[in-house]
Design goal:
alpha+beta; Rossmann fold; 2 domains; seven-stranded antiparallel sheet; seven-stranded mixed sheet; 17 helices; 35% helix; binds S-adenosylmethionine
Length: 494
């Protein structure tokens, strides 16, 4: 209750409530009032209320000062009822926003208890030029303050992220999924990598062709040895099917061969031989073949690369293991080959994705949402990917130390030239990586149960399901302590 509030002019009740965003209400008779000069209460003009109820669609295209004022009044109400607004130069709410990034230097804060229609009108007037060029006037309420800013709409998360880094922003607004995406970590990475960290899309497919053809073989081929016999047995089988890309990736990412081996063994142990598995962006398909051969599980490798597909078909055959040479997400053409979008309607017990998403886009929500459509109800989704962590630079140095076991300084320098600073062929494009927070936010948003099972610095693995027991079963069967040694060295356990 406001101590100096006048009594209700309708029923004379003395505890009229003053609203934060203007106006008052009598809790006794329910009448709503506007507060005039000297605190006088006059019955509320319901036309504004009606307008805000149907907001955002009914506010017309404004031309006159009167109409602008009326819109600003409705927006003031919207601040209270909706917590914010995004409007164009005519104070008309924007309805088609995707990824929104604030523009440096435009922010203004006003205590929420004194915010007025004039504040909205004057912010608009001061920024008429940028607003006329298509920028957005945004407002939101946080901890007693109303924030105004100018922002820009982007069609992709990556573009918005790049703008956020350029504009020194902490976060962007993902209007598609309605959540705040932090960019603090990305900024650290861009600072570490230099200005070109956001190179749009270097072509990696030629690299995949060259790598599967053997052009990026390590100078020292590793021979992994596991402590657990079931892990060793899987790995021995894997060697019957493995290709050059397998060797490249396992020498580029610490403990990658250990991870894939432990996962395969855990899948058949936890879910039995009938459990069906699809490996998205599964490369040469050797992992799927070895899983079928050892655990009996029917496997599908989905990966768009014809050289890898030929290798899969020509190198070895495992009944029950197939490879589909189609694209996850949208279809595309590359080097004269067209990869149609995979349209399969089959559902799987396990959907696995390892180091694939970051070669396609940064849209983890869209990708994982799509991956989930391939999952049987209560099935297991697993993702292993390179993410942006708070200690990104230090973790990269550790990873480089690992790689130096297998590659000469000349080889590393040569590869660095190929991939520049945009990313690495085995691990993905910088611009398509997301932060650990973003990834976890997406996973928790899509699945009831999410558990991290693998941590190698900037490389993390998560098991997810809508059935928590599925995740528990998998974790119980997964022995993360059996990190293989090579003839080169014993790597640190995660
Ligand atoms: C780093 S590799 C990961 C390979 C595999 N997961 C492994 O462990 O060896 C990334 C793979 O993504 C595949 N790829 C890239 N874009 C794709 C798309 N849109 N659809 C399907 N596969 C794609 C490439 O052909 C490549 O084999």
């Amino acid at each position: 209750m406001e101590p100096n509030a006048p009594p209700c002019p309708v029923c004379d009740y003395h505890e009229v409530e003053i609203h934060l965003y203007g106006g008052a209400e009598c809790p006794n008779c329910g009448t709503e009032f506007e507060i005039g000069p000297g605190g006088r209460l006059t019955p509320h003009d319901n036309s504004i209320e009606e307008m805000s109820k149907t907001w955002p669609d009914t506010i017309p295209w404004h031309t006159s000062a009167d109409e602008l004022t009326k819109s600003a009044e409705a927006l003031l109400v919207a601040l209270g009822t909706e917590g914010g607004f995004s409007v164009d130069m005519d104070l008309v709410p924007c309805s088609d926003l995707l990824y929104v990034c604030s523009i440096r230097g435009s922010e203004r804060t006003i205590p929420e208890n004194i915010i007025s229609v004039d504040d909205i009108l004057s912010f608009r007037a001061e920024h008429l030029d940028p607003l006329a060029s298509g920028m957005i006037f945004g407002a939101w309420v946080d901890s007693g303050l109303v924030y105004f800013d100018l922002s820009k709409n982007f069609n992709t998360l990556s573009d918005a992220m790049a703008a956020a880094v350029e504009n020194d922003q902490q976060a962007i607004w993902d209007n598609v999924e309605k959540f705040v995406v932090p960019v603090a970590n990305q900024r650290a990475v861009v600072a570490a990598m230099g200005d070109n960290g956001w190179i749009a899309s270097p072509e990696f497919s030629q690299f995949f062709n060259d790598a599967t053809g053997g052009q990026y073989a390590p100078s020292q081929a590793p021979q992994w040895s596991f402590q657990k016999p079931e892990h060793q047995a899987f790995h021995d089988e894997f060697l019957n099917h493995t290709g050059n890309f397998d060797q490249h990736i396992e020498t580029s990412i610490p403990d990658y061969r250990g991870l894939m081996t432990r996962k395969a063994v855990a899948i058949s142990k936890a879910f039995g031989p009938q459990a069906t598995v699809i490996d998205l962006m599964g490369g040469e398909g050797s992992w799927g073949k070895a899983l079928t051969a050892t655990g009996g599980n029917p496997t599908t490798t989905l990966d768009a690369n014809t050289d890898m597909h030929n290798f899969f078909n020509q190198h070895s055959t495992v009944p029950g293991a197939r490879r589909i040479n189609e694209a996850f997400g949208q279809g595309y053409s590359d080097g004269g080959t067209t990869y149609p979008a995979h349209q399969g309607s089959e559902l799987y017990d396990v959907v696995n994705e390892s180091m694939g998403f970051q070669f396609i886009s940064a849209d983890r929500l869209g990708q994982i949402n799509q991956a989930k459509t391939m999952l049987k109800p209560g099935g297991l989704f697993m993702t292993d990917e390179k993410v942006v962590t708070p200690n990104f630079k230090e973790n990269e140095a550790t990873k480089d130390e690992w790689k130096a076991q297998f590659y000469s300084p000349e080889q590393l320098a040569q590869k660095q030239q190929v991939v520049n600073i945009a990313g690495e062929p085995a691990t993905g494009m910088m611009a398509n990586m997301v932060s650990v927070e973003q990834l976890e936010q997406v996973l928790h948003g899509l699945f009831k149960s999410v558990q991290r099972y693998w941590d190698q610095g900037n490389f993390l693995g998560y098991a997810c399901s809508d059935n928590p027991q599925t995740v528990q079963k998998f974790l119980a069967a997964y022995d993360g302590s059996d990190v293989p040694s090579t003839q080169v060295s014993q790597w640190k356990a995660a």
